[in-house]
Amino acid sequence: DGGITQSPKYLFRKEGQNVTLSCEQNLNHDAMYWYRQDPGQGLRLIYYSQIVNDFQKGDIAEGYSVSREKKESFPLTVTSAQKNPTAFYLCASSIRGGDNQPQHFGDGTRLSIL
Amino acid sequence: GDSVTQMEGPVTLSEEAFLTINCTYTATGYPSLFWYVQYPGEGLQLLLKATKADDKGSNKGFEATYRKETTSFHLEKGSVQVSDSAVYFCALKAAGNKLTFGGGTRVLVKP
């Protein structure tokens, strides 16, 4: 079955450490996205990529970095510059172009600071 | 900029009650509108969508109608079940492929 796989489901980070969250999709979607969700709140866009080797900052990109070397993969690195990284991180993908195309989501990674 | 406003929760209902979650939006142009559902500890699942004015999206007993004149996309279900307990997000997509989400509404259905 096609879908989006995020790993790990739970991740712990020590102060000053960088961590990388994995997102893989086999839906053959061109566009991929990373969102952050804080308790009781909606989703905020961190980064998105419309095509391989290209990505753009979202609304809260500071302290995060991404790469898009392959169509199916869009890893997110939470750097030590992100002062409040504890959150639920969601990856999504969609067909590129067309305002009526929905985004499909993975099951998320919950990041906590030790 | 684009924005989505949802009624704040939690909404607590008894089984078989009628559910309405209000959603209004502000956007330039003619956005597509979506409802997503999030069960505890999981990602978001697309519940339904509507892409133009007066379209009605429906799925699993849920319905929402795209009302351009009132810039609304209210979610309704006639008879809720305990399994409908979740957080519901209204979202819009305008030009550029980016989704704008509302803050989410938590629904709790009691037996």
Brief overview:
The complex is a heterodimer of chains A (114) and B (111). With 114 residues, chain A is mostly beta strands.
State the end-to-end CA separation of chain B. Answer: 41 Å
Could you say which overall geometry of chain B the principal axes of the C-alpha atoms support? globular
Low-confidence stretches of chain A: none
Strand elements of chain A, count: 11
Which percent range describes the beta-strand content of chain B?
over 45%
Taking the sheet with the most strands of chain B, its summary is: 6 strands, mixed
What does this structure look like?
The complex is a heterodimer of chains A (114) and B (111). Chain A contains no helices and eleven strands. In chain A, strand 4 and strand 5 form a beta hairpin. With 114 residues, chain A is mostly beta strands. Chain B is built from no helices and twelve strands. The radius of gyration of chain B is 13 Å and the shape is globular. In chain B, the strands form three sheets. In chain B, strands 2, 5, 6, 10, 11 and 12 form a six-stranded mixed beta sheet that branches. In chain B, a hairpin with a 2-residue loop joins strand 7 (56-59) and strand 8. With 111 residues, chain B is mostly beta strands. Helix content of chain B is 0%, strand content 51%. The chains are: A mainly beta (114), B mainly beta (111). The A-B interface holds A 4, 6, 31, 33, 40-43, 45, 48, 50, 58, 90, 92, 94, 96-97, 99-108 and B 31-32, 34, 36, 41-46, 49, 51, 89, 93-95, 97-99, 101-104, 106.
Write the layout of secondary structure elements.
The complex is a heterodimer of chains A (114) and B (111).
Chain A: E1 4-7, E2 10-13, E3 19-25, E4 31-37, E5 43-51, E6 54-57, E7 64-66, E8 76-78, E9 87-94, E10 104-105, E11 109-113
Parallel strand pairs in A: 2-11
Antiparallel strand pairs in A: 1-3, 3-8, 4-5, 4-9, 5-6, 7-8, 9-10, 9-11
Chain B: E1 3-6, E2 11-14, E3 19-21, E4 23-26, E5 32-38, E6 44-50, E7 56-59, E8 62-65, E9 75-77, E10 86-93, E11 99-101, E12 105-110
Parallel strand pairs in B: 2-12
Antiparallel strand pairs in B: 1-4, 3-9, 5-6, 5-10, 7-8, 8-9, 10-11, 10-12
